[in-house]
Amino acid sequence: MNSRLVVNHMGPNSPEKVAFDLMERVAFIEGKRIGRDQEYRGKTDRTWFLNAFADCLDAAQGRRRPARSHAPAEEKDGAASTTPLAA
């Protein structure tokens, strides 16, 4: 059998950790409940969780493009924005 085991350690500044932290913030803002914290108002299903993490990982790795309606005016005109996102 020719299987491969891939081990990825999630360090403090790894894209995976950044994505997870971002996903937690998005969940809070959207009123989703993740983990055991009862502070979140809505129930989070598996599909939402996996899609949200995938979106956040794409963003953390610089692969996500903003939606057209959220793009700054410079990007709508074809020029790339050079303003970094605030943390």
Write the layout of secondary structure elements.
Blueprint: H1 15-29, E1 32-33, E2 42-43, H2 46-60, H3 73-76
Parallel strand pairs: 1-2
Helix pairs in contact: 1-2
Write structural notes for this entry:
The protein is mostly helical and 87 residues long. The chain has a domain at 15-65. It is built from three helices and two strands. It has helices at 15-29, 46-60, 73-76; strands at 32-33, 42-43. Strands 1-2 form a two-stranded parallel sheet. The radius of gyration is 16 Å and the shape is globular.
Quote the distance from N terminus to C terminus.
46 Å
Calculate Rg over CA atoms: 16 Å
Determine the structural class based on helices, strands and strand pairing: mainly alpha
**Would you report the number of β strands?**
2
Uncertain ranges: 80-87
Quaternary structure type: single chain
- Helix amount: 25-40%
In round numbers, the mean pLDDT is 74
Number of helices: 3
Net shape: globular
Query: What is the spatial order of strands in the main beta sheet?
Result: 1-2
Tell me about the largest β-sheet: 2 strands, parallel
Tell me the series of helices and strands, N- to C-terminal.
HEEHH
- Beta-strand share of residues: under 5%
Quickly describe the structure.
The protein is mainly α. The chain has helices at 15-29, 46-60, 73-76; strands at residues 32-33, 42-43.
Structural key phrases:
mainly alpha, two-stranded parallel ribbon, single chain, 87 residues, 2 strands, globular, 3 helices, 39% helix, disordered C terminus
